[in-house]
Amino acid sequence: MKRFINLSHQAVWLGLVVLLAAGLPARAAEPVLTISPAVVQIGAFFNGQTVTVSGTIPAGTQAVLEVMGSSAEEHLMRKGRRAGMWMNVGEIKVQDAPSLYLVMSTAKELLTAAPPTATWGYRALEKRLVFSGKIEPAERQEFLKQFLELKESEQIYASRPGAIQLKAAGGDASAVAASFPLPSNTRPGAYKVCLSVIQDGRVVSHNCADLTVALVGFPAWLAGLAYQHGVAYGVLAVVIAIVTGFAMGFIFKGGGGH
Amino acid sequence: MSWNLYLPLAGNSINILLLFGLGGGRGLSLRGVRRGGRLSHDPALDHGGHPVHGGRGLGLQPDCGGLHLGLLCSLPPGERGLQDGAFLTIGGLLGGTLGVQFIKLLRAMGNADFVIKITYVVMLGVIGFYMFAESLQSMRKKPVESPRVEAPAKVSLYNRIIQALPYQMKFEKSGVVLSPLLPLVLGVFVGILAAIMGVGGGFIMVPVMVYMLRMPMHVVVGTSLVQILFTCINVTIMQSASNHTVDMILAIILLLGSTLGAQFGVRLSRRLKADQLKILLASIVLLVMVQMLVSLVLPPHLLLAHKGGH
After folding, report:
1. How far apart are CA A116 and CA A119, in angstroms?
2. For a FRET experiment, which of A130, A176, B46, B265 has its CA 20 to 30 Å from that of B31?
3. DSSP element (H, E) containing A91
4. Burial readout A14-52 (b: 16 or more C-beta within 10 A, e: otherwise)
């Protein structure tokens, strides 16, 4: 009897193992993602940095890579003509706009002809953004386009169809690799890099990794002083200017003044 | 080695050589006309992608350190109108403080950049046309009318007004009798302009002192420098504390560039005739003014902008 109970216990465990094994293909479908470097340091000579992403996705699928900053409410001004001159005439608030949004894909059409149900790229972003303030409902599409153009001109939004390289990695996996430039005006903060596996026009799985951008060294010290001790920073600026002026006057005595 | 330097306050990097070039250009222009460097300099930074309001504070520092203080020290004591400049300085400090708050309010309302640009268009226009006309007149060898500081035979309305102001007192160095209210009010005006435009105010203060306060030219230079120095220091500290718009690194590099540029300016100015140089600089000032005016009149590429600049 005891032996029978043991056998039945073993059968239950075996059943569980089989069930878990059956679930394994779904876990294997999750893309693997590696970022290099995972921490971008903004030092004194920082001029943007190229970040490389590599990973694997199931064979026969496509991928979309998104780099996103934290979302916040943006306060923008719309321009209008008054007395023959163009000036800011009203405030427009944009909610849920990421501070940085870069999107890349393996197949170009994933971004250039994304389906209406797409949960990636500018199409998804357009659905997510909420405009309020001095804007009529009929103007939304126009200002949405303007908003994306503004962000693209600042290099903090970009859509790069086909920028992910896709190669067979052997077995039932494909290797993906991409690199994206983080512009020099990237704000320090925490960013998410997400790789989504696309099959039949929908996301079947995705994986995200953290990317940190941090001020280090002299810029970190100077920014801290400027924003937390504004008066001391101002006094220091004046003292440095005066000392530099004296030094320059001394070096170029008689020739440098005006 | 990277030639780019990260500016933590601007939140962006900028090419050091470009900065030296801008500073050098300013130094050259200063050697040529002894004014106007700032006026061509801040719009150049703006066109280079640096926020317009960010230029206010940074522009003040080279004026405070490299140029005015050095010049002030080089003047003989008789030419430093310390007593005369006191009221202008007090006015400048008040005006600068007011101006900084005004810019803060404008930034909150979202139209700071427009006000700064339109102020530049007006000032560049006035100065550019004046310099151009004056240089043309000189080149045609017509006698240039020098400013007449002595009182005209017939008392003008302006003279009657300034004589009617209360608390008339004699300014020893300048030898003029004035109400201290007049330099005080003019100082406030120049202080506000200093905060809005990021200029020292000398380009307005000198004609104001010559034509409105009737002060002799040799005293005007030193007095102007005293006033500018204090106004600059005040506005720099106020901008740092209130608006966080002083980019120290940028200012130091521009200062170094302008000092080096001034050395080349000395050599260049020896080869060119003063009128030729002045007409060249007037043309640059007018071109910048026209470019800024066009940017205000023509429809912008984008109808959206960040509130309060970048």
Report:
1. 9
2. B46
3. strand A85-98
4. eeeeeeeeeeeeeeebbbebebeeeebbbebbbbbbebe
Interface contact B12, partner A, CB < 8 A: yes
CA dihedral B174, B176, B179, B182 (to 10 degrees): -60
pLDDT digits (tens, 9 = 90+) for B180-199: 888 788 878 877 877 777 66
What distance in Å separates residue B259's CA from the closest CA in chain A? 6
Helix segments in A31-75, DSSP class H: none
The pLDDT assigned to A92 comes to 92
Quote the CA–CA distance of B93 and A176 in Å, as a whole number.
Answer: 62
Peptide bond into B77 cis (omega under 30): no
Q: What are phi and psi of B249, to 5 degrees?
A: -65, -45
Residue with tokens 């201290």: B180
Rounded alpha-carbon distances, angstroms, from residue B99 to A241, B54, B235, B258: 22, 15, 8, 26
- Report residue A42: phi and psi, to 5°: -95, 100
For chain B, give the number of residues: 310
Buried b (16+ CB within 10 A) or exposed e, A135-168: beeeeeeebbebbbebbeeebbbbbebebbebee
Residue among B6, B9, B302 whose CB faces A226 most closely:
B9
Whose structure tokens read 């540029």? B261
Instruction: Please enumerate in sequence order all residues whose Cβ is within 8 A of that of B251, keeping only pairs 6 or more positions apart, or say none.
Output: A237, A241, B57, B58, B59, B60, B61, B62
Query: In angstroms, rounded to a whole number, what is the distance separating the alpha carbons of residues B146 and B156?
Result: 19
| Burial zone of A132 (CB within 10 Å; 0-12 exposed, 13-18 middle, 19+ buried) | exposed
Chain B closest CA to A58's CA: distance in Å? 39
CB neighbour list of residue B258: distance below 8 Å, 6 or more residues apart: B23, B24, B26, B27, B30, B37, B62, B66, B67
Q: Does residue B214 carry a pLDDT above 80? A: no
Give me chain B's average pLDDT, please: 71
> What six digits make up the tokens of B179?
């109400």
Say how many residues make up chain A: 258
Give contacts of B74 with chain A, Cβ < 8 Å: 249, 257
Within 187-216 of A, beta carbons closer than 8 Å to B belong to: 187, 215
